[in-house]
Write a structure and sequence with these properties.
Layout: H1 5-8, H2 11-15, H3 17-27, H4 32-36, E1 42-45, E2 60-75, E3 85-93, E4 98-104, H5 109-114, E5 120-130, E6 133-137, E7 140-143, H6 149-154, E8 159-162, H7 171-181, H8 194-199, H9 205-213, H10 218-249, H11 262-269, H12 276-289, E9 296-301, H13 307-320, E10 324-328, H14 332-346, E11 363-367, H15 373-385, E12 388-393, E13 407-413, H16 420-427, E14 435-440, H17 446-452, E15 457-461, E16 471-477, H18 482-497, E17 501-505, H19 516-520, H20 528-531, H21 537-546, E18 554-557, H22 563-575, E19 580-583, E20 596-601, H23 609-616, E21 626-632, H24 639-649, H25 653-664, H26 690-706, H27 714-723, H28 726-734
Parallel strand pairs: 4-6, 9-14, 9-15, 10-12, 10-13, 11-12, 13-14, 16-21, 17-19, 17-20, 18-19, 20-21
Antiparallel strand pairs: 1-8, 2-3, 2-5, 3-4, 5-6, 5-7
Helix pairs in contact: 9-10, 10-26, 10-27, 11-13, 12-13, 17-26
Length: 735
């Protein structure tokens, strides 16, 4: 059913094949509708010029400025040995600064005639540095002549839209293409129900498209953006509400713990009482498990808040009810760690079928890709017979050979490490859809949880168990103050001297060849610290053993070691046989060694905010205070240093995740988008537009409850189809 013929028209028919090809390849725009939704990034005002003073290096920019002077030089070169080479230098100004343009060779003739002093034009090109001055080499330009008919008509609005552009397609060419297709905006079908639009005083979609591309006033832009934000938030929330609605229709086996079963026996063994937070979240989970449709819950917990314990109690409840539970971990190190800590917590309750096992015990098996054939065969047999109530594994759990007797609950640890397909494959192993609990220690601001994980109900553990110690964090500016770094190693020796242990984390392993291309890239002066390759585990471990940590027991751990070696290193560290573990981020999640009190993160600026927060959570897990030192050579004024200062200043993961998001922008909230693909959010900012998202979620839930198939809202159905192209549709289906 072709509801929007005008907007589905391919661009090649409207703009010609050459322009359409560039738009498709570089901007991902294929239809008239795509182009209408490619909104201006900002607007230039007629009388006010761009600030040349704050041009970013190495970026494609569009500036509106006036020619101050133009000079033609001749020079000799290998191509023009007799002094016949020509170079045109044009200086442009905008009141805030000046910028040099250069044209060479045959390219000088046209600009020499056109760019006369006093001429105003739009210039586009890549900002580079030459002789310590900013310049644009061979910029494309468009003269702004107020006297010609076309210019008057095109630039009639006081505001000139500047579009996200590429080297192959300047902003004004996109603007001209938009001008060509703008009449089709009248045919845009409105996705918002009329009552919602009127109730919130929003303009219609055709009017919003017109106003965002051809505003006459700033109020036009505000109206258009307010309306388009609502579209994005609402359509996305409807997609998620339909997902939740469909999930609620699926059948699942209710799993209620037996009053005197495994869970009760486990709770009796616990040497401490659960925190209020753990009790509250457990109740939410048990209530979900008791219903006859699958639980879909996201459990967010600060590093060390006891998520594993909550998940284990949920798994035991399912085993009590005759089902099996599977826990999916992102790495072998973490799967082994979980298996170890769960069997320790359960004691004889994990020894089902064995001598000395408790009467109500079950079996807890580990399944990873690197297990020997015999151990693997035994584990698979325990799963298919139902002998094993709990299995912990890596994606080896997803393989076709793995069969369960009765899979009732899937727990996914560190959600962001798993592809949706992997989660989906594991869920497909149940006779009926199993209940799903997704855990993450990366705190997610409320609005992001409502968008990214909008099909999951959310529980938050924000209380740390008693006995956890605070972690002091400090930035160590190694380049400016080398004695601070020397002091850092002294602190590590002091901690070891007091009977504790330490981690040293590096961004790289050190056995890979350095990227020759990276070395050749021209660096801006501020990037001194970026010039060298990131510090590597193998190099740093050798230097420390010979130098500042000589005499201490130093070992290395990284992802390329054979699994048995990794496990042996972790066991020695956990047992206290190693003083300092020099590792990559393989220790980022789940590694639990309460005696480790200090962590030094080398080249800390190479890690993301939430990654640093995760890493830091590995220390201070016992009764002794934790210390985290963030070593960086980046200059004090750099953005990287500000990021590190933010991490050092707070232990609140939610605050940090907010900072992280504001710096990274949201990317594509529906997940899967490859880097470089367009975000499905163009005007909606997940952090700033919290109210719009919360209200849109309520409205969407009401619309879907009343009309799940959206039969009475054809415009909304069309918008959903456009948002959920096939890939995203599958992504949500599997969410």
């Amino acid at each position: 059913m072709d509801l929007v013929p005008a907007l589905q028209e391919p661009l090649k028919k409207v703009l010609g094949p050459a322009t359409a090809k560039v738009m498709a390849e570089h901007l991902g725009l294929h239809t008239v509708g795509d182009l209408l939704h490619h909104y201006p990034r900002r607007y230039e005002e007629r009388g006010q010029l761009t600030h040349l003073a704050d041009l970013p290096m190495d970026e494609h920019v569009t500036v509106v400025a006036q020619v101050a002077d133009a000079r033609l030089h001749t020079f000799a070169s290998s191509k023009a040995p007799r002094g016949k080479g020509q170079r045109l230098e044009v200086t442009i100004t905008d009141g805030s600064g000046r910028l040099q343009l250069v044209f060479f060779g045959n390219g000088v003739h046209k600009p020499h005639k056109e760019l006369l002093p006093g001429t105003r034009a739009m210039f586009a090109g890549k900002v580079s540095l030459f002789n310590r001055r900013l310049q644009l080499a061979h910029p494309a330009y468009e003269l702004l002549r107020a006297d010609t008919e076309e210019a008057v008509e095109t630039w009639a609005g006081a505001l000139i839209p500047l579009y996200p552009a590429t080297a192959k397609l300047e902003s004004w060419k996109i603007g001209k293409a938009v001008q060509t297709v703008l009449p089709s905006a009248q045919e845009a079908l409105d996705p918002l129900p009329g009552s919602l639009r009127e109730g919130r005083g929003l303009v219609s979609l055709p009017e919003a498209l017109l106003k965002i591309h051809r505003p006459h006033t700033k109020a036009d832009i505000a109206d258009a953006r307010a309306r388009l934000k609502w579209d994005e938030a609402f359509v996305l929330q409807v997609a998620l509400a339909r997902r939740r609605h469909a999930d609620a229709q699926l059948p699942a086996v209710p799993r209620k713990p037996a009053p005197d079963g495994l869970l009760a026996a486990f709770d009796d063994r616990l040497p401490f009482t659960l925190t209020d937070g753990q009790q509250k979240v457990s109740k939410e989970i048990f209530d979900d498990l008791a219903t006859d449709h699958p639980m879909h819950r996201l459990l967010q917990g600060e590093v060390g808040s006891g998520k594993t314990l909550v998940a284990l109690r949920a798994m035991l409840a399912v085993v009590d009810a005759g089902g099996q539970a599977a826990m999916l971990a992102p790495t072998e190190v973490l799967a082994q760690q979980h298996h170890r800590s769960i069997t320790e917590m359960m004691g004889e309750l994990a020894e089902g079928g064995m001598l000395g096992g408790a009467e109500r015990a079950t079996k807890v098996v580990l399944l990873t890709g690197s297990m020997g054939t015999a151990a693997r065969r035994k584990a698979l047999l325990d799963l298919v017979t139902g002998e094993a109530g709990i299995v912990i594994g890596t994606h080896a759990l997803i393989e076709d050979k793995v069969q369960f007797h009765d899979l009732g609950l899937v727990v996914v640890d560190e959600q962001h490490r798993f592809g949706v397909e992997q989660r989906d494959a594991l869920r497909g192993k149940g006779k009926q859809p199993p209940h799903l609990l997704v855990m993450t220690a990366t705190p997610i601001p409320r609005t992001v949880a409502m968008t990214v994980f909008g099909d999951l109900e959310t529980s938050v553990l924000d209380q740390l168990p008693a006995g956890r110690s605070p972690i002091a964090s400090h930035v160590v500016p190694a380049a400016e103050k080398p004695h601070f770094l020397a002091r850092a190693w002294e602190r590590v020796r002091e901690e070891v001297g007091n009977g504790h242990q330490a981690y040293v984390v590096c961004p790289r392993i050190g056995d890979e060849a350095d990227d020759p291309k990276a070395a050749k890239k021209k660096q801006s002066p501020e990037d001194e610290a970026e010039k060298r390759p990131p510090l590597a585990v193998l190099d740093v471990a050798a230097q420390l053993s010979r130098g500042p940590l000589q005499g201490l027991r130093v070992e290395v751990l990284h992802g390329r070691m054979p699994p048995d070696d990794k496990d042996a290193v972790m066991r020695r560290f956990a047992a206290g046989d190693t003083d300092v573990l020099v590792a990559t981020t393989v220790i980022e999640v789940g590694v639990n060694v309460p005696n480790a009190t200090a962590m030094v993160i080398m080249d800390a600026d190479r890690f993301g905010v939430s990654q640093l927060h995760q890493l830091r959570g590995r220390v201070g897990r016992g009764s002794a205070a934790g210390l985290c030192l963030l070593v960086s050579e980046m200059p004090e004024a750099s953005a990287a240093r500000q990021r590190l200062n933010a991490v050092a200043s707070t232990l609140d993961g939610f605050e940090l995740s907010r900072i992280d998001l504001e710096q990274r922008r949201e990317g594509d909230v529906l997940g899967q988008a490859q880097s470089g693909a367009r975000s499905s959010l163009r005007v909606l900012a997940v952090i700033e537009d919290e109210e719009v998202i919360a209200e849109a979620r309520e409205e969407a839930a009401a619309v879907v409850a009343a009309d799940p198939e959206l039969e009475h809202l054809p415009g909304l159905r069309t918008a959903l189809d456009a948002l959920l192209d096939e890939e995203r549709e599958q992504y949500l289906d599997k969410g």
